[in-house]
Amino acid sequence: MPVRSDLLADIQAILGSALPASLTSTSAANDLYEAYLFSLVCQAARDEGATVKFRSIMSINPIIFIFRTSPGYISSRYADYGYAIIDFTNKPTLEAHVGVRVSGASQVLHECDICVLLGDESDLCRNTGGSIAPRAAKVIISIEAKFYDSSLGLGLGRSFLGFTMDVSADKAFFVVNRTSGSIEKLLSHKKRLWEHNIQPQNTMDINRLKFAFQTAFKDFKAKY
Q1: What is the DSSP letter of 57?
Q2: How many whole angstroms separate alpha carbon 47 and alpha carbon 18?
Q3: DSSP 8-state symbol, 19
Q4: What is the pTM of this model?
Q5: Section 154-175 average pLDDT
Q6: Is 51 helix (H, G, I), strand (E, B) or coil?
Q7: Least crowded by CB within 10 Å, which of 22, 101, 125, 161?
Q8: pLDDT of residue 127
């Protein structure tokens, strides 16, 4: 329970007291973890100079921020899901989402636990009839989030490698709350981005991850 409470406190700190989160300290740990990493992305964007605003599918001024707890299409109105608008001066607008499907190079759908993508691509999906997934090539940051109370199997690392082969995000991160020597060795060997021990009390690891997110935003600004 203390870990869940710490995650929720950090999530709420980013959203602000005027916008309560739909999650609680009794929510599933993996849902809280995804929301927590979403909040770190938003904080990194602010630290890099962006204006960050929170919106929802049906409102520019939501009264509650509803986090997805299962993968869905970006245009889904099953609930009034929240997302972040990220604006850097004189750059294309970005959006940050939790739990949305994206279309890989093979046109197979994949779940992004957290993703940052071009706002024009999000608008296209929302405004086109039917269930349309954003193209992975329009994703700036993708994050595979893993929260485990037990050891992590190597299969998780292999699955992430498969994901990165089809989803051509500019920066794809594998982020976990624990350590796993075999996964870390595999991803390092394959030159993939990963971070471990990401929990609220581990300040050094968190700062390293936020700086990595900032670097991704810095590269975005240079590219666009």
Answers
A1: T
A2: 21
A3: S
A4: 0.95
A5: 92
A6: strand
A7: 161
A8: 87
